[in-house]
Amino acid sequence: MALGAWNIDSASHRLRGLVTLETGPASSDVVLEVSFIGKRGESLGHVTVPLMNKLLVPGGTGLFEADSSSAPQVPAIRVRVLANVPFPREVGPLEASIVRSDWEAGPGAVLLGRLTNPSDQTLRVEDLWIVGFDTSDQPRTMAVGVAAGDVLEPGESIPFLAEALDAVDVDRWEMMAQGSATDSSGPSLVDAEEVEFQSDPQGNPFVTGVLVNPTDRPRTTRLFLLATSNQDWLSAGAFEVPVPLPPHAVWPFSITSLPGLPDRAQEVDLEPYVIDGPAESGVVEVTAEVTGYEVIGSRLYLRGTVRTKGTDTLHRPTVFSLLRSSEGDLITGGWALAAERLEPGEVVPFLLTIPVPKGVDLALVEYDVQAFGETE
Questions:
Q1: Tens digit of each residue's pLDDT (9 = 90 or more) over 70-97
Q2: How many CA atoms lie within 13 A of 171 on its CB side?
């Protein structure tokens, strides 16, 4: 294994580096030992870190990050592999390119890109990483990309989204993407419906809609939403439902973060991508009680508590609220994670924040609040 470019951030004492696998089979679950070397070649200590990307292939690049606070100004490092597992499937490269970049307040950047399968076989996305290099070709930041799908057919392209921190010194971006051979995937069973572009009283854009599970089994569900205008990619948003989507559930959502979208954007088209699959665990309803609400600015804040109905420990209890007009039209909605874990008999508070569209009188709106938790 060869060590490539590396850099230590003087403020955070984070060491970021690249390695290349020169020979050997494709591997996963790679663990590295990073040794800090002094000016006279003496060892100043070492740390053990996992490789950030899932796969490392011959001739491919791996990414690692480590805490260097024990040796903040170390002049040299050494890297060796402590553990790895041979990857059982054929690996193929994916092509990734940036379509738009938007700089947020502070040092962060949001990147919207295109991921393409250039091969003649179906590939499952295994790795999608974006590395920012400065003018000296030193890695300054690393970000994982969130793609609008898990499986790409030959020649297929999908969008991806990445949020990079500490990007102020970045001069260029380099994408590292690869997939493994797999069978074609079937269509998503969960649907995104009533998806609508709206704006609040201050003119800030957001998107509302519902995820519908028409099946009799819980489904793990992610949503990627692409905003376009005249076929130009403008922005995107993505989230994963914290618990399996219950059977026959209608799950409301709102996406308020659409980086790069022009203020008061007009003629925006929305393209939802739903990525779902059978859940390995179950999901049960928990008791949700609203104890208060208030409207501040363009947001509705619902406060309350959740508690279990039974004797099981639940994971990621999540509250959602769906607001409809008296005619049954979707007005807005959203969900919030109440806790990571809910023990039997335990009561935990929640705060659900929901964007309010302009011109809506909440006194005329009907709302429903429910909560679900994942079983072990």
A1: 888 889 999 999 999 999 999 999 999 9
A2: 7
Alpha-carbon gap, residue 79 to 193, rounded angstroms: 50
- Alpha-carbon distances of 310 from 284, 314, 343, 375, rounded to whole Å: 10, 10, 10, 11
**C-alpha 56, offset from chain centre:** 22
N-to-C CA span, the chain = 40
Q: Cβ distance 56 to 93 under 8 Å?
A: no
Q: Please give the single-letter amino acid code of residue 143.
A: A
CA distance 94 to 152: 9
Residues facing residue 175 across a β-bridge: 130
**DSSP summary character for residue 246:** P
Q: Residue 88: exposed, middle, or buried by beta-carbon count in 10 A (0-12, 13-18, 19+)?
A: exposed
| Predicted TM-score (pTM) of this structure | 0.91
Half-sphere exposure of 169 (CA within 13 A, CB side): 13
Q: Which residues contact 126 (CB under 8 A, 6 or more apart)?
A: 54, 55, 91, 178, 179, 180
110: helix, strand or coil? strand
Which phi and psi angles does 311 have, rounded to 5°? -110, 5
Q: Which helix (H) or strand (E) holds 361?
A: none
Beta bridge partners of 157: 116
pLDDT in tens, 273-327: 999 999 999 999 999 999 999 999 899 999 999 998 778 899 999 999 999 998 8
**DSSP state, residue 362:** G
How far from chain centre, in Å, is Cα 11? 26
Q: Which two tokens stand for residue 340?
A: 């990571």
